[in-house]
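Would you kindly consider the sequence and fold I have copied below?
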Amino acid sequence: MHLSFMTFVCPEYELDKALATAIRYGYEAIEPRAQAGHSHGIEVSTTKKERARIKAQFADTGIKMSCLATSCRYALADERDRQQMIEVTRQHIELAADCGCPAIRVFGGATPEGMDFADAKKYVSDSLAAVADFAQDHGVYVCLETHDAYCCAEDAAEVVVRVGHPNIAINWDMLHCIRAGETMAGAFDHVRDYVRHTHVHDGTWPADNPSALTITLMGEGMVPHDEAIRLLASIHYQGALSGEWIAAFKPEEILPHDAARLREYIAAANAD
């Protein structure tokens, strides 16, 4: 496994500065956040020529693009909206492939008012099935995040199992699983066969209000990342541990701290 960070920690950085920051703090990869107005320039509007330049820029620095984080979500009541989202997903799959990126992150989304959760899961699985072969043809995993209505790994895994395609996978954001009441081991049991990308960030929340989340430095919150990394090591996970911190810390504060803590956890897991 290797260390990555999402560009929400430095949304104003152009790509060259983001890459230099990764090198400075010992990260092996970056997860660009698309569809959010970040300054890295990796969007579906990016030309083929610019995509080739971006791919070369990553290669020249030795930094990987771990995943392309999108806003795509599929629990939508209107069929036309779902079809449009499927097309947007295909555009991001193509963008990722052109830039040498192995995965994109997508959401199930919140369940619309008046919609049964079972119906929402079917819309999400049907939408993912509609892009699965396209993703395989482009060598890209589409990773459903444990987030929104799918914070429980059990629910995210149910959707992925229903699709039953090797290129439809899970982005395991373990913090949300813990907030939703799952144990780390229980969540891992659901995602272990499907996890291709992982988000890491620590935080605290009141017992009676898990939505009131405060992001903390790793080791100062309520998420046992050391346990998660031991579990990932047990399946020889080769993907990224990608830090996601949205408007919580400056890069020079969070990046070196969490990298050091994660490397401690990885070393301990490898020593077991």
The mean pLDDT is 97. Residues 117-137 form the longest helix (21 residues). The CA atoms of residues 86 and 196 lie 21 Å apart.
